C-alpha cells in the first residue's frame, strides 16, 4: 500500500537512506529537517525533483509547523530520525541534545497526538508514530554480559544517550497515557553511504585515504555492534508495516567488533582499493579516551526476527566493502561535507586528544 510518511531528520545519514528507500518502494515522503551541520540535501540529490519527495526546512520543536504539515499532507505515519546524534559533541555541548532530542521529540509527540485524535477511526487504526532510538540507552556491558534485549533496564551514560532515553520514555508515556500508537526501535551502530565523517567508520576511511592519523580512543578494545544502514532501513519499514503499537524492537547487525578490529579491517581493504606504498595500518594512532566511554554494546534482535521475520542482507565483511567503495566513488559529496564546520570540529576534538 502506498503511504505518505512524515520523516523527520530525513537529510541526515540514516534518514536520507530511509527516504531514498521508501521513495523507490513507491511511498510519498514529507521530509522535515532543520539542516544542522549533520543534515545535507546532497544526500537527496537523486529525488530533488521527484514529486514524491516534499522537503521542508524546519525543526521538530516547531509545533505549529509540524501541525500545519500534518494537516496539509495527512500522513499515515511519522518516523522520527531527527536528533543530535554524536556522543563526542554531546560531551562538549550537551544543551542542543536536550533541545532537539528531549524537547523536540516532546513537541513532535504533542502535535502527533492532536492530529491522531482528529482522524477517522479507520485512519487511526492504520496510523503509526515510529521513534528511532539507539542501543546506547541500555548502558554498557561487560565482556560476559548477555546482549541487550528489549527488557533491559535503561542505564544511559552520556548526555547523548540520556537525551535519547528521555525521548524514549516520553514516547512510551504517550502510548500508555494517551493511546498514541507508537513504536520504538533501538538499533546498534550504523554504517554505510552518506554517514557524516565525524563517526568512526567514515572518519577512518577518509583519514586513511588522505594518509592522516587514524585516531583510536583509549585501548581500542571498546566493542560496538555494526549494522548496515540499508538493513536498518528495511527493518524500520517492516516494523512500520507489522510492528505492534506500544512495542519496542531491537535492531542489531550480529557483528560485534572491537574498535581496533574495525579499523584494521578498513586498513586492509584500503590497501587493496587504494594502495599507498605502505600499509594503512601504520597510520593507527592511540589517543586520549572519551570520558565515560561505554565499554561494550551488543544487541539481541531475536524479537524482530521471530515476530516480524526480519533478516539482514549484509554481513560486516560485505557491508564494509560496499561502504568503502561508496566513499571512494563519491569525492564530490565528501568535498562538500568536509568544509568549514567539519574542519573546525576535527581540529577541536582531535587536537585536544593529542592527535594532529
Ligand atoms: P545524523 O546526525 O546523521 O542526522 C540527524 C538529522 O536530523 C540531520 O539531518 C539534522 O539536520 C536533523 N536534525 C537535527 N536536529 C533537528 C531538529 N531539531 N529538527 C529537525 N531536524 C533536525 O543522525 P543519524 O546517524 O542519521 O541518526 C538518525 C537517528 O538514529 C537519530 O535519532 C539517532 O539517535 C539514531 N541512531 C543512530 C545511530 C547511528 O549509528 N548513526 C545508531 C543508533 C541510533
Ligand atoms: P562513534 O562512531 O562515535 O559511535 P558511538 O560513540 O555512538 O558508538 O564511535 C564508535 C566507537 O569508536 C566508539 O567506541 C568510540 C570510538 N572512536 C574512536 O576510537 N575514534 C574516533 O575518532 C571516533 C570518532 C570514535
Question: Could you provide a short overview of the structure?
Answer:
By secondary structure, this protein is of the alpha/beta class.
Q: How would you sum up this structure, described in words?
A:
- The chain has 356 residues and is an alpha/beta fold.
- The protein has a domain at 4-196 and 226-254 and 297-315: Rossmann fold (3-Layer(aba) Sandwich), CATH 3.40.50.720.
- It has 13 helices and twelve strands.
- The strands form three sheets. Strands 3-2-1-4-5-6-10 form a seven-stranded parallel β-sheet, with helices on both faces. Strands 7-9-11 form a three-stranded mixed β-sheet.
- Strand 1 (4-8), helix 1 and strand 2 (28-33) form a beta-alpha-beta unit.
- The chain is globular.
- The protein binds nicotinamide-adenine-dinucleotide (NAD) and thymidine-5'-diphosphate.
Q: Taking all residues together, what is the mean pLDDT? A: 97
Q: Number of helix segments?
A: 13
Going by CATH, the homologous superfamily of the domain at 4-196 and 226-254 and 297-315 would be NAD(P)-binding Rossmann-like Domain
Ligands: nicotinamide-adenine-dinucleotide, thymidine-5'-diphosphate
User: What is the H/E string?
Assistant: EHEEHEHHHEHEEHEEHEEHEHHHH
Largest sheet: 7 strands, parallel
| Class derived from helix and strand content | alpha/beta
CATH class of the domain at 4-196 and 226-254 and 297-315: Alpha Beta
Radius of gyration: 20 Å
User: In percent, how helical is the residue content?
Assistant: 40-55%
